[in-house]
């Protein structure tokens, strides 16, 4: 296992915690991928790299950076990570996303799950402030948003919810107003980007 810290002490204490686990070996704590490659971990080697999200783009900046880990499974950790962040990181190739507050007793089982091939997400229940408007949705608006995000037309949504098309238009207008989106396409993009649905 490798720890990629980014020099901000984000992973302080993790090494000590994992050192106590008999079947987990830590090869080192590194500032970035360059440091990891300095120990000659070739593309043929494999393991788990726990990466501090706050280390920034040079370390975890999208799929290109995540590909730089070769066969290593990347477990990203940080504070203020939301479901949308987790979805983007997993799509980019991360095998897990963990809130830094979960680095205590939850860490070892999550590491073992990743080692077994699972993809794990362990985050708090905070709502991303960028999508705080979601808290103000009615149950019906939430149902309509989920259907819109799946690409359903107003007619299809109306049929599935057994209401009129005019009612669906009313709900979509309310969703646009509450979200601050100026189009249905922007609403769909926002829903997927932030992991709302």
Automatic annotation (TrEMBL):
Residue ranges constituting the HTH luxR-type domain according to the UniProt record: 130-195
UniProt xrefs under SMART domains: HTH_LUXR
Gene3D superfamilies named among the record's database cross-references: 3.40.50.2300
KW Transcription (keyword) present: yes
Transit peptide in keyword set: no
Alphabetical list of InterPro entries matching this protein: Sig_transdc_resp-reg_C-effctor (IPR016032), Tscrpt_reg_LuxR_C (IPR000792)
Matches recorded under PROSITE patterns: HTH_LUXR_1, HTH_LUXR_2
Keywords: DNA-binding, Transcription, Transcription regulation
One Pfam assignment: GerE
Protein known as: Response regulator transcription factor
Source organism of this protein record: Promicromonospora alba
Lineage of the species this protein comes from: Bacteria, Bacillati, Actinomycetota, Actinomycetes, Micrococcales
């Amino acid at each position: 296992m490798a720890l990629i810290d980014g020099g901000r002490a984000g992973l302080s204490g993790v090494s000590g915690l994992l050192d106590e686990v008999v079947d987990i070996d830590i090869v080192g704590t590194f500032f970035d991928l360059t440091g990891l490659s300095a120990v000659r971990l070739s593309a043929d080697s494999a393991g788990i790299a726990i990466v501090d999200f706050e280390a920034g783009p040079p370390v975890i900046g999208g799929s290109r950076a995540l590909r730089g880990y070769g066969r290593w499974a990347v477990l990203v950790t940080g504070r203020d990570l939301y479901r949308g962040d987790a979805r983007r990181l997993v799509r980019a190739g991360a095998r897990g996303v963990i809130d830094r507050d979960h680095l205590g007793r939850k860490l070892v089982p999550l590491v073992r799950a990743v080692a077994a091939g699972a993809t794990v997400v362990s985050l708090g229940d905070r709502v991303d402030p960028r999508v705080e408007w979601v808290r103000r949705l009615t149950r019906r608006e939430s149902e309509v948003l989920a259907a819109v995000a799946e690409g359903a037309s107003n007619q299809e949504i109306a049929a599935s919810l057994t209401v009129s098309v005019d009612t669906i238009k009313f709900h979509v207008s309310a969703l646009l107003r509450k979200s601050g989106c100026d189009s249905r396409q922007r609403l769909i993009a926002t829903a997927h980007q932030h992991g709302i649905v």
